[in-house]
Amino acid sequence: MIVIPARNEAPRIGGVVAGLRALYPDVPIVVVENGSADRTAHEAALAGARVLHSARGYARALRTGFIHALRSGAPWIVQMDGDGQHPPASVAPLREALATADLVVGSRFVAEPGYAVPTDRRVAIHALGRWASVCAGQPLRDVTSGYRAWRPDALAMMVADYPEDVADANVLVRAVKRGLVVREMAVPMAERSGGVSMHTPASGFRFALRMAVLTGWEAVREQQSVRIAPGSFDGSGA
After folding, report:
1. Taking CA 194 as the corner, what is the angle to CA 190 and CA 197, rounded to the nearest 5 degrees?
2. Phi, psi of 79 (to 5 degrees)
3. How far, in Å, CA of 185 to CA of 190, rounded?
4. Which residues contact 90 (CB under 8 A, 6 or more apart)?
5. pLDDT tens for residues 137-157?
6. pTM of the model
7. Please, what CATH class does the domain formed by 2-224 belong to?
8. If DSSP codes are grouped into helix, strand and coil, which group holds residue 45?
9. All residues at 6 or more sequence positions from 156 whose CB lies less than 8 Å from its CB, including other chains
10. What whole-number distance in Å separates Cα of residue 104 and Cα of residue 157?
11. Distances (CA, A) of 187 to 93, 99, 111, 143, 148
12. How far is CA 53 from the centre of its chain?
């Protein structure tokens, strides 16, 4: 199953869903609309996606989609953005990489990113990646990539207490600390074609600082807590 959180992506979401359906006609596509002021939900449904709604926020949208995927018995789950940056053709290799990992991250920094990542964002992501690597105890590079593939049993370990606010580097650290095998693979991505990214230059420093704090907290939190057993998701709550 493919899960796409989307807010105010009406000009782009239809093309994203159509591209996925052309390549994977038998794979369910779920778009989780979260607080849009435009026709995101309408365009997603028109293109053939199932549309769910969540409270506003990227992490809340992901959790809503993940719970739906687990309840549906999806054999694998790929999360991707609705802004057109993530190439649909990479769903298949991400999914296949789950043969040797619990969580696979589509990374711009294992090889060439595919577009010129703005310098301020590249510096911030690399710095956050180094900090997340220290917290996790393993190298992590593209810690803000929203292109990820999950094994359902691994996702079940995470979804019950999935972060309510932001879900980037902190989720990767939590996954590693809970014993999941996390790997990255190169995925060349496209530059966003329009709309407003949640990582803007104006808010980038504040976001990076906040994410660094949350990422550090995950390392402390998981070290102090009892590891949750695989398959602990019981299907309750959304």
Report:
1. 80
2. -100, 140
3. 16
4. 106, 147, 187
5. 999 999 999 999 999 999 999
6. 0.86
7. alpha beta
8. helix
9. 70, 230, 231, 232, 233
10. 15
11. 9, 18, 8, 14, 11
12. 17
